[in-house]
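Input.
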Amino acid sequence: MRRDLFIAGEWKKAERYASLHSPFSGERIAEVGQAGLRDTEEAIAAAEAASAVMARMPAHERTAILNRAAELLLRREDEWVRLLALEAAKPVKTAKAEIARTIQTYRFSAMEASRIHGETVPLDAAPGGEGRVAFTLRKPVGVIGAITPFNFPFNLVAHKVGPAIAAGNTIVLKPASQTPLSALVLGDIFGEAGLPAGALNIVPGPGSVVGEALVSDPRVKAITFTGSPEVGIALKSKAGLKRVCLELGSNSALIIDRTAELTEELVERCVSGAFSFSGQVCISIQRIYVHEDKYEEFLGKFKARTEKLVIGNPLDASTDTSALISAKEVRRMEEWVSAPWPKEHELLPAAGRSAVLCSRRPF
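Output.
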């Protein structure tokens, strides 16, 4: 399968294509066009040309387009689940949840499209303002540059594309290199839904080319980025006066105090929070603090439930966790696991405080 770039409502051949392989099996699943600087500039130009059309579009039309897109996604739900399993190694049970949430996100965006409005402000707080009011009107920003990560390639794209369309903006989308197929399907989806040509452009490619162009081009009025803090900080430093919205990596902890009941539901939530999609989730649990009175009981229950997780092919309905997104991430995790563990007196705090259960500690 070969996938081209989506620019100005049409599929455009790229000068270079990169092989996309399954993280689980290693098989080649697609050849994906890689946008260069010229392609990116063309996409920005298309978005700028379409911005006047989108700005004039009434709210009911934007609402209808987003609802139609949600409906089109729903009709082919099983196809998208399989696509997620192939390109991201996301188990089907997890992929189904993401597709369902993606459809909700576009429907939520459709709802917001119909109620984006300004406000009136009384001016009588100051002398001379009696009987007067001011009012504000919300207008589209223009061209939005959107850069998305691999871990939720349908829903985190929807988080950017849906609101942008709802507000009457146009978008140039750079999806993650490992999961571009989930984004590229939106070209046909939104085309069929009635979105004007050029309002959505999808340009996979290296961040050093596509991302840099989006950040530096003055025609792009806002950047929305989801990814690592390091990249986000660098991006913001280069964006100048552009509006920038960053959603960066978390450092999520869970506290279980003396009063907590170690129910089956609690343990299940801890295990799913730690290991869902192999922990490749923005808010995955990275460490758990357990009161010393509950420590041994919790550790036993957590270990027992974790051992029931099924590791295997993401296309198998019984699989709970599958391959990591890339070999690089496997090596990084192996380094964490093999790192020296703190001595017991360094790990456990004084009596009356919480003990620490860390994901690096071998069970």
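Residues 348-363 have pLDDT under 50 and may be disordered.
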